[in-house]
Structures are given as C-alpha cells and as structure tokens.
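Table 4 source record.
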Amino acid sequence: MLTDLNGKTKLVPVLASPVDHVIAPSAYNPAFAERGLNWLMVPMGVDPVDLAATLKQLARVTNLQGVNLTIPHKSQAFSLCQWVTEEARVSGMVNTLRLEEKGIWSGTNTDGIGFLNALRAQEMLDLTRPVFVAGAGGAGTAIAFALAKVGFTTIDVVDIDKQRVSVLLHSLQRMFPNITLGNSSEALTRAGLAVNATPMGLHKGDPSPFDATSLQDDAVFFDIIAARDTELMLAAKERKLRVLGGRAMIDHQLTHQIEFWRGDYFALAHRD
C-alpha cells in the first residue's frame, strides 16, 4: 500500500501523546484502500502544549484530508474548533477534525457511536442493566453521554480526578434528568456492563482500574484500549465473561469519521 503513495495522496495524521501505543493506521489505511481513497494515516507524537501550534501548521498543509485525535487531545481540540456536531458539543470533546475555509476547524466525536455499535454488533447492548465506567476523560465522557442518550438509566462513573467526575455527572444530570447517576466504586459489583475508559493498560505492568473478580458472572466488559489485550481483559476472559476491546470500537466508528473527512453532510453549529 505504501508503494502507491504519490503527490495526490491525502494525509490524515493521528495526534497522540504518547504515540507509541497508536495502532489506528492498521485499521484506517486498509479501510481507505477498500473505499478507493488515496489517503494515508500517519501517527504523530504531539505534546499537549504544542497542539494549537501543530494544528495551525497542519492547516497550511495543502494535501491534508483531516485529523484524528486520541489521548490526551480531545478536550483541548474541542476548544480549538469553531464548528462542532451535536455529539461533540454535548461531550465537550472531539476526536475527528476537518479543515474548513480560512483555516477554521470543525469537529465531531465518534467515540460514542463506535462504542455502541461495537456492542450492538455482538448483541451485548442491554439497556436494562446498570453501567460502570472507569474514566471520565475524552473517551469516557463521550461514552457516558452515548450510554445516557441511547437509554441506559443507571450509570456510575469513577476517576482519580474527582473534579472531572463531578463536572461530567453534573452535565449528564442536566441533560438527562431522569437517569440515576453515581460515582461509587461499589457499583462495579452490580454492573451488567463495565467499561475501562482510562489509559491504564496501555503498557504491560500498568495497574488495573478495577478487579475483574468483582464483575458479575454475566457481565459484559469493554476495555477501550486497542494497542494490546490488557491484563484486565485477560482476567475477564479467564472468567469466561463477554469481552470487547478497543479495536472493535475503532472498527465501528471509522466509517463515520471517513464520512466526516470526505465532507459528507453533518449538522454543525458554532461551538459556543
């Protein structure tokens, strides 16, 4: 595939920090080729303090098709967009950028739809069960909003950053006043769906955000880490639980991102 690169190739960088865990090109580049798109995704390590300057320079690249974003850029990138979709606005996060006229960025967030569609594809979406989400960062926030919007009625979110959890739960309660929200670690034992939306597990030896032995025997466990099977995933599989990993989430959101990068219609509104 790389031998087909030429002056008409459009670039789609994926910005991350750290960048060593990024496997997105292995999913996106074949998807581009299958659709007859002369596009190339390339990982770029960008420190958060350099994100604004990097996007400013990328806006000058004449063969840029779009930008993909992962840890830890989704919140800051939202603030750098002038136009966003509803999915991005409600979560305050973007993972997909498109360059508009005059160097203006528009953004959307496909983490939620990718997460839900991965569950639907495996018939693991049960709205009647409580949900436990570890992590209130970019992906965790998007996932929590998607879960509430699709109809889950009991959601607990925990994070080492208590202020971040508080802000997220307040926003969720304001938008979905009829759901039951909490931030109790004990809710894990009652959850029908447990989610690791933290970076814990990116590297071998990372501590796990919770203990797989606390999960119910019929629970679904979704670890959004895509770079590897985490120790938590392996422990859940050993218990014969139903397990999904981050690659499934990528596979079920890339179509939406490609549509956005192609300029297909998405309802955009001013970020403010």
